[in-house]
């Protein structure tokens, strides 16, 4: 195991550090308080910092949040591991495309924030992420800068392994802008945990001129609901893999986590909260 490295940073930088490792393309659009995640990624890419695949991340800044979501969907369909960062109304504008990012290993990192209702507010609430429970994204929450550092990568590892898209979220400002001294996750750890065969399978499913397939068709109820139902097995695998990935992190970083499941009473969708069992 590599030597432990400690650094003072906020939650946005911790999330960006982990996301950069697994990202080939980032479709971005700024919105408070998530903008620093994209800014870090863009800065590192401009300086030639390499991801796990030996290349700088390709940053694509669109003209709207909907455009960023569309670029994420298209990039994933083309076989590139893709990430975006957002919050609040920006996340809600991504919802239509989130339904289309099914069984694709996309990850959205969210610094959760209240929605503009009777007035705009940039402070804490989980209205934005709770509004996305029905989209099919597995949801993982972290509650401190160290948890973000330890577990943001698990969202990517699980998405790649299971083909289920993940949303990793943490409190806007309370975590996103809180500066703590944290143990930095070494990219060598991610490299050892990354399932290269799963990455290869993902790339082989990519839309190419050489291997054309039909996607986005119209289906009658006899077919449509079968295809909705068959996706359940992928979510069951995600449930098992998250726990395994947390244990892998424990072995490599000497951290201790528990995976707690929250079952949403209305939708039945599982949300994962991994808790670091020591005082930060």
Largest sheet: 8 strands, mixed
* Total of helices: 11
Total number of strands: 10
Widest sheet: strand order?
3-2-4-5-7-6-10-9
Rounded to the nearest angstrom, the radius of gyration is 18 Å
Distance between the termini: 22 Å
Mean pLDDT score: 87
Q: Helical percent range?
A: 40-55%
Question: Low-confidence runs (pLDDT<50, min 5 residues)?
Answer: 256-279
SSE class: alpha/beta
Order of helices and strands: EHEHEHEHHEHEHEEHHHHEE
β-strand percent reads: 15-25%
What is the approximate shape? Answer: globular
Q: What's the short story on this structure?
A:
By secondary structure, the protein is of the alpha/beta class.
Secondary-structure map:
Elements: E1 6-9, H1 11-22, E2 25-28, H2 35-46, E3 58-61, H3 65-77, E4 82-86, H4 88-92, H5 95-100, E5 107-112, H6 127-130, E6 138-141, H7 145-162, E7 166-171, E8 180-183, H8 187-193, H9 196-204, H10 221-230, H11 232-253, E9 257-263, E10 270-276
Parallel strand pairs: 2-3, 2-4, 4-5, 5-7, 6-7, 6-10
Antiparallel strand pairs: 1-8, 9-10
Helix pairs in contact: 1-2, 1-7, 7-11
